[in-house]
Amino acid sequence: MFLQHMMGVLYHPKKEWRSIKSEHYSTMHIFLAQISILAAIPAVSLFIGTTQVGWSLTGSDHVRLAVGSALPAAVAFYVAMWVAVGIIAYSVHWMEKTYGGSVSFDECLVLTTFTATPLFVAGLAGLYPMLWFNVSVGLIALCYSVYLLYSGVPEIMQIPEERAFFFATSILTVGLVVLVGLLAATVILWGTFVPLAYVGG
Predict the structure, then answer these.
(1) Which residues pair with 55 in a beta bridge?
(2) Dmax over Cα atoms in the chain, in whole Å?
(3) Which residues does 7 contact at the CB level (< 8 Å), separation at least 6?
């Protein structure tokens, strides 16, 4: 159903976003039935890719992580993605009245989750953790997410399109800040609390 909506938004965005809004997803449903699965995609993929295939910058000289090291890192990454989605959704809900919106937190979470879905699915690229491949897939997913954001804000938040553009830009800024914060926290965790141990290629 989720991926079906993703395709629908691509071909007829306004109609599909209205359909998504009419389904009235609850916060509990989104976190337990959707984010719990979506966040597992990059976490599990990177765990498998970094422990079984190995990380490579050039396509040669693969370096693998020890399972005992990669597992806590994957769990921490999984939890961090839950937190990141919640922070962005809360920020959307907090900012909405500034732009004339008046919807529930549930709908802000729906917007955030559907917008982030391409980035979660792109996590499958982690099964083959080579830098150029992962960056390419990530950029394509990011472009799709930005498209979903700008097409979804007017429909989900029920505000005029001219205000929706500025609101979507504000959300994008918050999302990028959260992403940078997530990356920084990951680096700190890897260097201190969850140090990575490498094994031969």
Answers:
(1) 63
(2) 56
(3) none
